[in-house]
Q: What sequence folds into this?
């Protein structure tokens, strides 16, 4: 489910990703980066997007999960960028991450899962050439996926399941501690209406199932029934709602190695 959810996230959050890539391009300047690390690459959304944006750059997708990296390779081949996207199975928070040298690093929704973020930042710092940039993106609020008529219900269900994103780290001090100089911090916002019978509906169903794993045991019988109906594949599921309202926010930090 996770890999499918990550792939669909790339579709429904596409405007947010493009905004982040615009920031990366501004940092890179006219010459553009030559080698980019995508740290915690997942299924390759960042790696593929970076390879598209920077047509001469080598992009290295780094992840600890070989299944994710296999998905990156499959997507790179399908997108025609497999000659410039390669994969490395490595832990950025290990003593020997073997990242090589790069002039740009990207880490989206990944470093909060690292057991030693300080070591991860130091390793990325060491991998970057002087003047190189690191861009970090983290979710700072859970995505909302249902239309206005379900707003109160969705908020109640999400509250019942907890909201890890509400406690997202502020990486500013960790970046400074690793030796980086802060360049900017930006809030990225998604607020779009999408047809429910397409990728947004599949995304919403998976997101509701994910929330349900944490919330189900604490919900009322009525809320449990609604959740199972919306997240399911039968009559009344989320794909039959006509239009979905996808919204959420993420924080972007950009820092530079002096």
A:
């Amino acid at each position: 489910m996770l890999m499918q959810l990550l792939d669909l996230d790339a579709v429904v959050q596409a405007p947010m990703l493009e905004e982040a890539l615009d920031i990366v391009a501004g940092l890179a300047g006219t010459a553009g980066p030559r080698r980019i690390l995508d740290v915690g690459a997942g299924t390759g959304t960042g790696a593929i997007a970076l390879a598209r944006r920077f047509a001469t750059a080598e992009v290295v997708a780094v992840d600890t999960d070989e299944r994710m990296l296999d998905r990156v390779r499959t997507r790179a081949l399908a997108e025609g960028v497999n000659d410039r996207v390669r994969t490395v199975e490595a832990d950025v928070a290990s003593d020997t991450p073997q990242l090589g040298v790069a002039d740009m690093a990207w880490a989206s929704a990944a470093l909060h899962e690292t057991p030693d973020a300080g070591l991860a930042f130091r390793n990325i710092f060491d991998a970057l050439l002087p003047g190189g940039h690191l861009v970090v993106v983290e979710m700072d609020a859970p995505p909302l996926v249902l239309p206005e008529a379900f707003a109160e219900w969705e908020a109640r269900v999400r509250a019942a399941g907890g909201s890890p994103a509400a406690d997202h780290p502020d990486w500013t001090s960790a970046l400074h501690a690793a030796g980086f100089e802060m360049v900017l911090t930006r809030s990225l916002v998604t607020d779009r209406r999408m047809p429910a019978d397409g990728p947004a509906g599949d995304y919403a169903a998976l997101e509701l199932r994910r929330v349900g794993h944490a919330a189900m045991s604490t919900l009322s019988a009525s809320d449990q029934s609604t959740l199972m109906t919306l997240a399911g594949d039968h009559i009344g599921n989320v794909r039959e709602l006509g239009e979905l309202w996808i919204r959420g926010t993420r924080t972007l930090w950009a820092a530079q190695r002096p």
In short: The first strand starts at residue 35 and ends at 39.
